[in-house]
Amino acid sequence: MTFTIKFCSDLHINKYYPHYPSVKDLFDTNDKFIADVCILVGDITYYEVTKFYKKFLKYLSNYFTLLILIPGNHEYYNNTQTKKSMKELDTLSKDLTQEIKNLEILNNKYIDIGDLRIFGSILWSFLPHTAPKKYFPIYNDNYDMLSRDEFNMLNYSSIVSLQNCIEQSKKDGKELIVATHYSPTFDMYSNKNVDPINYWYCNKLDDLIKEENMKVWIFGHTHTPYKKTINGTILMSNPYVNGYVKGLGINVEY
Asked: 191 CB contacts (<8 Å, ≥6 apart)?
């Protein structure tokens, strides 16, 4: 059997508040049923604006059997005077799934559809000391902004979760679709010498892309539309910027 996955990233719907993009804007259709699965690959808006976020997700959920949200870095941004830690924002996000029954939030987690496994993660990037400092208003439990070491611990946790999923999926006979907010590769940048700023956007995980059970890997964050097949794995990015493809999707057999 075949099902269709639509996907997009980096909608940043806070820019349109109190409005948000319509299904016509995103998928070029007003059909009551658009596809089996829609994956939102991060940076949709801030978790702290829960009511607005919920309103948008509830609207989208009516057009798909399953709606999957992969959080991005912007989901954890603080834009009010009241600081909220990542842990507190994760608690807020649970309110979204309680009211939207066909919504799954995947961060270092997976779900199965037949013989396919969909793994989702922010996949925070690793920040070497050569990467310049950036201001990310994301807070730890002490309400301090995350340090470089804390970002790198998040990166480590994401990669370990993905590696474990890859190995477990091999044992379970599952093919993998991976959806991450951060890019798994620097391949979209033409310069052989990596610009240090790009460490804030990408990972060097080309070996994982080539894993035998890897079928599709979609990502966001770079704001760079991208499509390439590497060692049989389809890599795609469809950010809501110039070059966005309305209704971009893939048909998958399961």
From this structure: none
231: left (phi > 0), else alpha (psi -120 to 50), else beta? left
- For residue 64, CA distances in Å to 9, 45, 107 come to 17, 20, 20
145 residue type, one letter: M
Is the per-residue pLDDT at 192 higher than 90?
A: no
Q: What percent of the chain has a predicted confidence (pLDDT) above 70?
A: 98
- pLDDT confidence tier of residue 12, bands split at 50, 70 and 90: very high
Residues with Cβ < 8 Å from 50, sequence gap 6 or more?
A: 92, 95, 96
Identify which of 40, 122, 121, 50 has the alpha carbon closest to the alpha carbon of residue 79.
50
Q: Report the alpha-carbon angle 244-184-25, nearest 5.
A: 15
Average pLDDT, the chain: 95
* Domains assigned to the chain: 2-253 (3.60.21.10)
d(CA 140, CA 26): 34
Of the candidates 231, 184, 229, 226, the residue with the CA atom closest to the CA atom of residue 210 = 231
Here the tokens at position 250 are: 């893939």
What is the model's pTM? 0.96
